[in-house]
Amino acid sequence: MLMASLPQTMKTTNLFITAFLILSFSIATGQKGKHGSYTQTGTTIVNEFTTLTVDASIGNTSISVAGSTMNGNSYSWFGGDLEPGDLILIIQIQGAIINGSPEPWSGTGWYGLPLDPSWGQIANYNNCGLYEYAEVKSVPSSTSLELRCGLSNDYTVSGNVQVIRIPRFENLTISGTMTTQAWNGSIGGVLAVEVNNDLIINGTMEASELGFRGATSSTTASALGIAQYAIMNSDAGGLKGEGIRGFDADYDLNGGRYGRGAPANGGGGGNAHNAGGGGGGNAGDFLNWNEGVGVPNPAYNNAWDEEAINISNFNSSGGGRGGYTFSGANQNANNSGPGNTVWDGDDRRNHGGLGGRPLDYSSGKIYLGGGGGAGDLNEASSTGGGGGSGGGIIYVLNYGNVSGTGNITSNGENGEITTGTNPGIFNISGNDGAGGAGAGGTVIIKSNGTVSGISISTDGGNGGDQTLVDGGLGDMNEAEGPGGGGGGGYIAISNGAIIRTSNGGMNGVTNSDGLTEFPPNGATSGGIGLPNETMSNFFLTTTNDTICSGNTSTLTASVTGTLVGTITWYDAEVGGNIIGTNALTTGVLTANTTYWVGTCPGNYLIPVSVIMSPPVAFNDASVVIGDENCGLGDG
Question: Which of 90, 79, 68, 92 is nearest to 167 (CA)?
Fold first, then answer.
């Protein structure tokens, strides 16, 4: 303040200069927004990927990676290789343990006992689904990264841990399609961005069909009457879809990659002879799986009543079940259930692939949508029958508002239709099991501001149809199993009321003349996921301090929301040293000084300035400006 003897105009000058000084030390920004504002058009991938190469433990500040440059595509927003102050996402994709053992082959076309209906049940998630954001402190070598904070989780390399480089946009407008690369067993399947101010979505953020892979189909000769859940022999049924346990060779460690058992959230393969594949799973009520039955269409309750256990009122979470095995006669499905010899062929057995299991999201873990199982095929003229891939993960960190007229989509892929080429006048083709669908993926929006206008969907895909092709005089009474629908995914946002869906996909149907009263022929829809979850959020706010030269300052940060981690103070924005936690009391200061505060763990820092307010004398000795608490000196 000015001395009382100075005129009012001088007081105004003092307030203006003080305000200017405070503003000058408040406009500095942290690493948020470092990649500038971006308006996206066309189709764009924005992330770079690498993998963890050495197991990492809680508290580690250094991690080993396959490659630390993370600039293989030379995206313009990054402007070069990974550097201090950049943001990464670390996430473990797989590594769960499931129950299961081999089921023996008798060599006669039938399989020996015991059968294990609990095959594929999750025994331990281990570190699968754990994730965290981290700021890069330094890049010491081509295969290592140093982090600002120690890790919050343990990560196991055998569980396929990927490290993802995140663009740090100031503002982001999406007018086209922003997407990511498909999960390939090591990397991909995740779209993640950070936006310091406003995110406007008038186009699409897209991760549909980019998650866990659907099973591929094959036309290996099929034995009759197979009931097995997991076995090595390819003539026992279709392949299983990918999930948090792994894929193909990983399932061999638990008894086999073929057969109707659902490996965690992956869909089971349709059993021989020609059953449909099961749909993949993701979110839902993980205590309500009901042996992969899925959701039977209530329009056909009379037919569902004919099963050994009436499933007409079931509403199972996870993926839908694949349809029945091969039948060759035109009977009434409302009177004759599966397994009855009147159906001829393989007696229309209830051996479709089981729907993938819903996963437990209660601990904060996140997952890709499960892949669908393949139908069982044995006709060289058939096409299709593979499982659909699940949806990927979309994760938005935003410190302004999210708005727009567009959508965020991570739906599961439809199971492949089974059909065929022209079989000749007296034959049919397409007489094989169809594929199960992929499950919906995962979408998370953490925003300090409002979320409005947009819509989000993580719906499961639809099961594959069986589309028979008649050569003209073929027997269209034959029927095989359609595919099961994919289960719904997971959506969580920090606030806002927007349209959100995580519906299960519909089951496939057959066009057989022998099942006109019951086109699902045993296939069911996927269960609903979890579309209306909330994501807790917190953020820090600070106030600059003005002191007299030669004094100390005590700086604090206020928390909005529930604090996770420890408030931590640094002496530099990038690569700085920790100088305190919670409140910071400085040493004696004689010059304007800026400190940086954030949380550990955490993904950004914000500046806080201490501003000196000593007496300031101009050439005109009669005009002296200063703080009344600092003294004026000699003018």
Answer: 79
- The answer to whether the CB of 374 falls within 8 A of the CB of 259 is no
Could you say which DSSP state residue 347 is in?
Answer: T
Instruction: Tell me the two tokens of residue 54.
Output: 């050495």
Contacts of 521 (CB under 8 A, 6+ apart): 323, 324, 333, 348, 466, 479, 480, 481, 482, 509, 510, 512, 515
Question: Do 367 and 243 touch, CB atoms closer than 8 A?
Answer: no
The secondary structure element, H or E, covering residue 20 is: helix 8-24
Hey, what are 262's tokens? Answer: 């659902």
**Which residues, other chains included, contact 595 with Cβ-Cβ below 8 Å and sequence gap of 6+?**
555, 569, 570, 571, 579, 584, 586, 607, 608, 609, 610
In angstroms, the Cα distances linking 457 to 80, 203, 344, 415, 490 are 34, 14, 42, 18, 9
Query: How far is 249 from 158, CA to CA, in rounded Å?
Result: 13
Q: In this predicted model, what pLDDT tens digit does every residue of 42-78 receive, in sequence order?
A: 999 999 999 999 999 999 999 999 999 999 999 999 9
Residue 35, preceding peptide bond in cis (omega within 30° of 0): no
CA angle at 285 for the pair 313 and 259, rounded to the nearest 5°: 75
Instruction: Say what the pTM is.
Output: 0.93
- 634: pLDDT strictly greater than 50: no
Q: Among 157-171, 297-311, 367-381, 601-615, which stretch is predicted with the lowest mean pLDDT?
A: 601-615
Q: What is the pLDDT of residue 254?
A: 93
Cross-strand partners of 134: 88
d(CA 430, CA 380): 10
What does DSSP assign to residue 249? H
pLDDT value at 4 more than 80: no
Q: How many residues does the chain have?
A: 635
Q: Does residue 28 have a pLDDT over 60?
A: no
Across residues 265-292, what is the average pLDDT?
97
Contacts of 40 (CB under 8 A, 6+ apart): 46, 172, 173, 174, 175, 176, 178, 203
Buried b (16+ CB within 10 A) or exposed e, 568-593: bbbeebbebeeebeeebebeebeebb
The position carrying tokens 């006109």 is 516
Which tokens hold the place of 160? 């396929």
For residue 509, give the nearest of 495, 524, 496 by alpha carbon: 524
* Exposure string for 539-567, b = 16+ CB within 10 A, e = fewer: bbebebbbbbeebebebebeeeeeeeeeb
Taking the C-alpha atoms of 612, 618, 622 and 627 in order, what is their torsion angle to the nearest 10 degrees?
-10
Instruction: Please say whether the beta carbons of 490 and 361 come within 8 A.
Output: yes
Q: Which two tokens stand for residue 230?
A: 């997991």
Tokens in use for 58? 């809680």
Report, in angstroms and rounded to the nearest whole number, the Rg of the chain calculated over CA atoms.
31
481: left (phi over 0), alpha (psi -120 to 50) or beta: beta
Q: How far apart are CA 370 and CA 366, in angstroms?
A: 12
Residue 415 identity (one-letter amino acid):
G
CA distance 632 to 273: 96
Beta bridge partners of 610: 545, 593
pLDDT of residue 104: 63
114: preceding bond cis by omega (within 30 degrees): yes
Q: Which residue has the tokens 């199971």?
A: 415
